[in-house]
């Protein structure tokens, strides 16, 4: 332009037309020396249409100039042209494609990064919607659009992804169950981890973070399912770790109690279903714990003092008395069945025969009840008939006594749980002997009526706690006192034969216990158990109700058993020594097994003896009913003397009376 301008100036002929051409060229030159806006380019083209008159341009000069201006137009409008060409607002009318597209992305997870482009395309529909005139506000239309797209995304991608990840984690953790074929060469493999490397997708006023969405879903699912079945905590913990390793998800720790269910089986639940509880759980006397007999899960539930204490803290100490009342109702029903069994002619006649036999032979047997007699009784009962699952009447009677013992064990645990709860509540009181009266202190300070009321409430709570902690109700004594008169009355004379059925019962129990313990080592563990101290508790309780501890002790039953097994073990050991010289392998093996079986039987009897001795302590086995009554009378007389202020009471009394 500058060259042509000089050429026009150098021409000396003046005319208005030439001046216009020169002005147009100057204008075009000045305008091109600036930003390439639409207006400037328009003025340049107008100026050149004037400037090209009068043949100021040669052909070889004009064509390159037009070409350059064309390129300038193109590069100036490039962004606008690209925007128009890439405008995807037409997708609004073809939204049906979106679900199909998402299904395809889910199937071919490798292309997951393209989701960003799809959402950019969907955003292009927004400007057009903002010009909507058929609604009061275009916001309504935008909201519906947003909701529809998110629902489709959740249904066709996010929810499917969550379910698939959860399924994969479950199957990986439970590979030992061999649920289905997971060989990737046969069933194929989809790597869903690609979705978790995506940056959050922006859509409207939100960011869609696929990784965070799936993590939240798994956290929520694992937490909820762990609360429902706390024994599965370990499985879900493994699944969390696997999700982190395999998919890079940052899982949140559930912080739920592991290994033990802190609340345990609720006291109210046990109380309402005590008949189910005593048959499904086994009692352990020494650890004071109940263990589930069988379970469909991988773990067995246990109930201990801490669980009971937590339940009492939840429901209040009033629940303890209600529980004992429920236990009393349960025991009444069980004792009715107990009485019926003892009254049965087959049983009663055998027991009377055994009592007569023992009286006749006790001097010859060193006052010991013969083992053979108990064994004969046990076998004789089987002849009376057995149930479809192979149980004799004595087996069922043993189970009845075990259930009664379990109920007593539960009462014991309730009392221990109550004391545990009180002690944990009262540990904040500095001195139990010297508790200040808060109400008086508040009145002295002249504080408000509400504060005085609160102080009165606090005093009442503290006095309740100290009283409960100091006393602790003797529930066993109550349950003995309530049934004992009926058991010992003349109309229930048939129950007086109970002490003679204890030896065959113990024999039956030991056989059952050994078979349960042997099942622990087998693959099919149905019926396996390692403890059942409910039986010892039940026997001790019933002997106390009948006041028959002395009668049972007179049988010297456990001594008789010990002597019998020790004698047999020695005989086998002696035979082993003889056979070891003869080098007979098979016979030696048989004798080893016999020796081992006898030792196991002796050990089981010893354990039962220890459990029974421990259980008897709860029921004050050292005193007969007559001695207890005498002691009760003496206590009453002393309290009467003390209340009358008898002066003789203050003088030193005879040490024996004391």
UniProtKB/TrEMBL annotation:
Transmembrane segments: none annotated. Residues 451-620 form the WASH complex subunit 7 C-terminal domain. Pfam families: WASH-4_N (PF14745), WASH-7_C (PF14746), WASH-7_mid (PF14744). Residues 626-640 have a biased composition (Basic and acidic residues). Residues 1-88 form the WASH complex subunit 4 N-terminal domain. One of its GO terms (biological process) is endosomal transport. GO terms for cellular component: endosome; WASH complex. InterPro entries: WASH-4_N, WASH-7_C, WASH-7_central, WASH7. Residues 90-433 form the WASH complex subunit 7 central domain. Residues 641-652 have a biased composition (Polar residues). Residues 626-658 are annotated as: Disordered. This is WASH complex subunit 7.
């Amino acid at each position: 332009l500058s060259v042509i301008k000089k050429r026009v100036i150098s021409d000396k002929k003046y005319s208005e037309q030439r001046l216009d051409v020169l002005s147009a060229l100057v204008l075009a030159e000045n305008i091109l020396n600036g930003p390439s806006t639409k207006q400037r380019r328009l003025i340049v083209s107008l100026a050149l249409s004037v400037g090209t008159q009068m043949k100021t341009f040669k052909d070889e000069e004009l064509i390159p100039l037009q070409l350059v201006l064309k390129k300038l137009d193109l590069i100036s409008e490039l962004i606008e042209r690209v925007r128009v060409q890439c405008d995807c607002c037409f997708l609004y009318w073809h939204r049906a494609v979106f679900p199909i597209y998402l299904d395809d992305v889910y199937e071919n997870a490798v292309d997951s990064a393209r989701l960003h482009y799809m959402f950019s395309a969907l955003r292009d529909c927004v400007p057009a919607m903002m010009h909507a005139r058929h609604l009061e506000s275009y916001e309504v239309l935008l909201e519906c659009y947003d909701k529809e797209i998110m629902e489709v995304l959740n249904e066709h991608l996010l929810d499917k992804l969550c379910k698939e990840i959860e399924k994969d984690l479950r199957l990986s953790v439970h590979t030992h169950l061999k649920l289905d074929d997971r060989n990737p060469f046969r069933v194929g493999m989809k790597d869903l981890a690609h979705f978790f490397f995506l940056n959050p997708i922006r859509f409207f006023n939100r960011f869609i973070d696929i990784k965070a969405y799936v993590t939240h879903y798994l956290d929520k699912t694992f937490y909820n399912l762990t609360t429902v079945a706390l024994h599965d905590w370990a499985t879900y913990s493994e699944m969390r770790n696997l999700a982190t390793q395999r998919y890079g998800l940052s899982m949140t720790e559930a912080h739920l109690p592991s290994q033990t269910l802190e609340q345990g089986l609720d006291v109210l639940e046990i109380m309402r279903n005590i008949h189910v509880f005593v048959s499904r759980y086994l009692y352990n006397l020494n650890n004071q714990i109940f263990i589930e007999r069988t379970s469909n899960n991988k773990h067995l539930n246990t109930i201990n003092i801490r669980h009971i204490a937590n339940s009492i803290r939840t429901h209040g100490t009033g629940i303890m008395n209600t529980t004992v009342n429920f236990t009393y109702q349960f025991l009444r029903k069980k004792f009715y069945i107990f009485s019926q069994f003892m009254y049965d002619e087959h049983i009663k006649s055998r027991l009377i025969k055994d009592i007569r036999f023992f009286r006749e032979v006790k001097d010859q047997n060193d006052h010991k009840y013969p083992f053979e007699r108990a064994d004969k009784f046990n076998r004789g009962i089987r002849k009376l008939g057995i149930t479809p699952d192979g149980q004799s009447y004595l087996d069922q009677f043993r189970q009845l006594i075990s259930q009664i013992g379990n109920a007593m064990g539960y009462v014991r645990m309730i009392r221990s749980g109550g004391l545990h709860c009180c002690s944990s509540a009262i540990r904040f009181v500095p001195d139990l002997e010297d508790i200040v009266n808060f109400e008086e202190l508040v009145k002295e300070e002249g504080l408000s009526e509400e504060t005085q009321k609160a102080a009165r409430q606090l005093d009442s709570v503290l006095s309740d706690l100290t009283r409960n902690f100091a006393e602790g109700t003797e529930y066993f004594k109550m349950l003995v006192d309530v049934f004992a008169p009926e058991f010992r009355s003349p109309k229930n004379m048939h129950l007086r034969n109970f002490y003679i059925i204890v030896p065959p019962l113990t024999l039956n129990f030991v056989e059952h216990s050994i078979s349960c313990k042997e099942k622990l080592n087998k693959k099919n563990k149905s019926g396996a158990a390692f403890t059942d101290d409910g039986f010892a508790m039940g026997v001790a309780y019933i002997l106390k109700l009948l006041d028959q501890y002395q009668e049972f002790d007179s049988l010297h039953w456990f001594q008789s058993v010990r002597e019998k097994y020790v004698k047999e073990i020695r005989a086998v050991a002696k035979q082993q020594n003889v056979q070891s010289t003869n080098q007979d392998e098979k016979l030696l093996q048989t004798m080893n097994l016999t020796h081992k079986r006898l030792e196991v039987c002796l050990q089981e009897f010893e354990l039962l003896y220890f459990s029974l001795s421990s259980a008897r302590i709860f029921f004050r086995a050292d005193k007969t009913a007559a001695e207890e009554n005498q002691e009760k009378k003496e206590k009453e007389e002393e309290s009467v003397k003390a209340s009358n202020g008898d002066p003789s009471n203050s003088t030193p009394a005879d040490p024996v009376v004391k």
